[in-house]
Design brief:
Number of domains: 1
Structural class: mainly alpha
Order of helices and strands: HHHHEEHHH
Radius of gyration: 19 Å
Shape: elongated
Length: 157
């Protein structure tokens, strides 16, 4: 009986058959969480609602959505449908962050929505094993969020 239970448990966790695969999964998900957290911290430090936890979850979710099919053997060409779904889904999430006031000039949340969208893209890069691309994109995003308002003479987020 115990042998059957152990064999069943082993087969349930067979998607990571060795230490190399476990390391790959953890590296990609942890990097997504770290980079998403960096962007979220920047937003949270400026009093925005979508902060560290939101950005971390968006990045890790996007990474997981591409990581699982890739590990399952999905062809790279077919991955475009998965990515299209992520882009659409995160677009709806970002749309919820945008608040339109009475006049066209009074719209809030556009930068937050764009940041969530970018965080998902960084998560996709992590999930696909494009770590360098993800890190460079996160650094550039931080520069856009943190430095450009100062260079433009307004520290408004």
């Amino acid at each position: 009986m115990w042998t059957t239970i152990l064999e069943t448990l082993r087969s349930e966790f067979s998607d990571a058959p060795d230490a190399e695969q476990v390391t790959r999964i953890m590296t990609r998900l942890l990097l997504a969480a770290l980079l998403g957290g960096m962007l979220g911290y920047e937003r949270e430090s400026h009093g925005k609602a979508a902060g560290i936890r939101t950005h971390m979850l968006v990045a890790m979710g996007a990474a997981l959505f591409v990581l699982v099919p890739e590990l399952g053997g999905m062809a790279v060409a077919d991955m475009s449908r998965v990515i299209q779904g992520i882009v659409t889904g995160v677009g709806f999430l970002g749309a919820g962050a945008i608040i339109k006031r009475h006049n066209e000039e009074d719209t809030q949340g556009l930068t937050t929505a764009a940041g969530i969208w970018m965080t998902a893209a960084i998560g996709v890069a992590c999930g696909l094993g494009r770590e360098t691309t993800a890190v460079l994109s996160a650094l550039l995003s931080l520069a856009v969020l943190a430095l450009l308002p100062r260079l433009a003479g307004r520290d408004k987020h």
